[in-house]
Amino acid sequence: MRPFSYDTAAELFPAAIRKKKRAGFAYRRFGTAAEAVRFAIEELPADSLNGAYLQVEEARFDQSGIRSLYESEAFPLPRRPRAPADADAA
Predict the structure, then answer these.
(1) Of the candidates 6, 21, 38, 77, which lies 20 to 30 Å from 32 by C-alpha distance?
(2) What does pTM read for this prediction?
(3) Per residue, what are the HEC states of the chain?
(4) What is the mean pLDDT of residues 47-73?
(5) Cβ pair 77, 38 in contact under 8 A
């Protein structure tokens, strides 16, 4: 198995079955997997991410897989700072 490349083009697909008319997002293609992962985690509402999947070459990642890619030490983009509630705990 090849190591994951964040520089590879990626496609983000919404959930196949939607109960609501608006899914929150439509199919999107990204120049890099890193951009797709950042968009999915930082921009999509949680209910839109549920059931969506990321395709990078022949590999598919569900919500859990996308989150793992985002949280990986290898993730190359800056992450959005955590919510203020995390700062209150300090």
Answers:
(1) 21
(2) 0.81
(3) CCCCCCCCCEEEECCCCCCCCCCCCCCEEECCHHHHHHHHHHCCCHHHHCCCEEEECCEEECHHHHHHHHHCCCCCCCCCCCCHHHHHCC
(4) 94
(5) yes
